[in-house]
What does this fold into?
Amino acid sequence: MDFVELEAIEGLRWSWSSWPVSKAEASALVIPLSIMCTPLMQVNELPLIPYDPLICNRCGAVLNPYARVDYQSRIWVCPFCYQRNSFPRSYVGIGETNLPAELFPTYSTVEYQLGKKASASSSNFNSNWGNGLSSSSLPSMVSSSSLASSFSSSSLSGLDSQAAEPAFVFVVDACSSEEELQALKNELLLVVAQLPEDALVGLVTFDSMVRVHDLGFAECSRVVVLHGERELSSLQTKQLLGINQMKQQLVKMSAIQKQGFLLPLSECEFNITSAIEDIHSSPLVMSGHRPQRCTGAAISAAVGLLEGCSVTTGSRIMVFTSGPATVGPGMVVHSDLCAAIRTHRDLINGHAPFYDKSSKFYKQLSHRLSDASIVLDLFACSLDQVGASELKVPVESSGGFMMLGESFESDQFRKCLRHIFNHDENGNLRMCFDATIEIVTTKDVKICGALGPCVSLRKKNSSVSEQEIGEGVTNMWKLGTLTNKTCIAFFFQLGDEQKVQPSSAFFIQFITRYRHGNTGIRKRVTTAARRWVGNNSPEIAAGFDQEAAASVIARLAINRAESHFARDVIRWLDKMLVRFASKFGNYVPEDPSSFRLSSNFSLFPQFMYYLRRSQFIDVFNSSPDETAFFRLMLNREGVVGSLIMIQPTLFQYSFDGPPIPVLLDVRSISPDVILLFDSYFFVVIQYGLKIAQWRKLGYDKDPNHESFRKLLEAPELDAEQLVMERVPVPKLIKCDQHSSQARFLLAKLNPSVTQNSTYTNGADIVFTDDVSLEVFIDHLQTLAVQG
It folds into this structure.
């Protein structure tokens, strides 16, 4: 079974599928022991179990197919800590031919709908077990529908109390132009119309002041105005809004309703709709100045509102802005247009006067977001930067959504916003809130940390390593929200005293607890087993997943890039790659021509070449906002999406047959072909010179040239499919060979033909000082064989 097939079952991609038995040998692997985990991936045949899981009394692991079961004594032995645990009375009918879903051999991943304890309705379980879960009456896999129908509704009666609607606070920048505001208001009104009636909603608007709208005041439009230049604490915000006593009344929904700032939609739909319609662009700006915009104060007020109303079931603050903050906390640039907004060079040279203070303000805000289970989303539609770089930490750590666009009138914005508010087949929002991920490991495996949209809960036990990578010193992390594509990279190392036998198994269990929309709390449990192998065993090399390894190294690189210069990150990547090639290459010492890498290692150097040249490391042509966005997206994408970001795909369309993948090389450009280029963030269709000329002559409209019309349509249909499936929506660029926009493609291609090349054979020339992939590999081989 290959790595992709395993991921479809477990939701996991391992950099190494077999682990060595010694710590020294694990360190010598160069690529760390790591797992790319997509907790809510749509895995094959996922059973939904309508009762609470059984948990080991010692280590907290959940009952799983690898547990040893004594059916006669009704005892199960935990595979992680070997603790003997008794089954509750409800499992009295258990047997080899009558297994519950969590013990079914093919279910490494199961999901529990948390409610009443199984023991509380034992008679119900006993009478239904054989009907729904007997292996003799089932095919090889137990379907989730048969599981659900095997238990009566009485066992789910405890769920209603856990079902709760999330809260949404819309934070709207009133400094936008009237046209932009109108487009934004239209979309917000559509969102409000589709929200569940019990969803809590709030509205905050801002310019130089912050206005918190009282949606419960029916007589007229009523707002509380907060000064945009003041940095208010949580307590001060609550006091100014008059909700400082909310803590004592948090169990009473009426306490929220009385305040009026956050109300169920059923009670304030008219008021919030009217308030959104009444948002108008702020007065004209002084000549030569930017608008007075207090984005940081507005976000802080929205956080204080949710904290004061004690919304603990998950909430989102959705910020819609069209420019940088020019006053108050989180300030990005001075309002005077003579002051240019900061660039990467300014950040490096220390010429960005507001950057450090604003970043510190937002970092402190991210802790409040985590504590209150609040997600922060940023929709920035502007031709200039808005301060996404400063805002990156709270957006990323809360798991929020970030979109950088040009206009609220664009399809890109509309598609992104509507995607977030998608509904499932039952009409529930496809949103998950207030998630935690806990890892349980075999005692010889230590947890170093995680990289991704999560926060360490600093919950330390014997399985936690002293070495910290990313969000570490814990075996449990918090995530404000999750989607079925959110991916976290987890890092591990071996214990100091390894006492394991080669070929024996070790286990890692991922326990993800989350609030599923408005339908209650769920717990998904994935238990993975792999084998220890002897040092220098060929199984180690055979279990190397070079795609997962490239994704892991990319996350480590951008994590390092946050505190190091780009040249230092590239130097670190190069040293790592030389060690890797020296370790796993086959060669005669000091003879570069003899160097060879086996097939499951051969693509890794190529991935690293393109990573070095990518916008994640080389920020020369990007603004700080763009770099923040690119890195945030890479840090949450799965292996497939990450690889497209690192090494884009290139397909060639011609009269010779169906589209074919071609090398990401300037030599792939030809006058009589069409190229479809996908770098995840933008999709380029480039027409060769001949194709472009024929199109201008209108051959595609001539019935005698039907094949030419179909050739033009094919890449456009494929590009539309790519754009439709991806969020945020990539920018679609159509260009002709040698046109100005062809630079988006040329910048990413391997420059095998440059201004210094002797023989070009008519190929396009890339004007660059970058080395080509061939030269890079030659250097790598020369260094690797030196040992």
